[in-house]
Design a protein that fits this description.
Pfam families: DUF674. It comes from Prunus dulcis. By secondary structure, this protein is α+β, with helices and mostly antiparallel strands. It is built from five helices and two strands; from the N terminus they run ββααααα. A two-stranded antiparallel sheet has the order 1-2.
Length: about 100
């Protein structure tokens, strides 16, 4: 018999409804880890290669936020390049460099 594991996450947002912007966000470590994991996938490289006009939804804004994040908010052994997919270890970077 299969067992189900449930995990709850917490995300609180303070939104300026007139301006349509998030003013403050409070999230559990699991939410932040999940978002950084998404950005550490090669998807980050694909987003970087797309033009700003081709980006759909808020994914481009999320990527831009990580680009501009202060190192104060990152773990000491974590590089932004790894999160953004700029790391030379990704094979897609070699392909994009060859295309230039």
């Amino acid at each position: 018999m299969a067992t189900s594991n449930t995990t709850s996450v917490s995300l609180k947002l303070l939104i300026d409804t007139k301006g349509g912007k998030v003013l403050f966000a409070e999230a559990s470590k699991d939410v932040v880890d999940f978002l950084f994991t998404l950005l550490s996938l090669p998807v980050g490289t694909v987003i970087r290669l797309l033009s700003k006009d081709a980006m759909v939804g808020t994914l481009g804004k999320l990527y831009e936020s990580v680009e501009n994040i202060s190192y104060t908010y990152l773990q000491p052994n974590l590089k932004k390049d790894t999160l953004l997919g700029n790391d030379a270890d990704f094979p897609i970077n070699q392909i994009s460099e060859d295309a230039k």
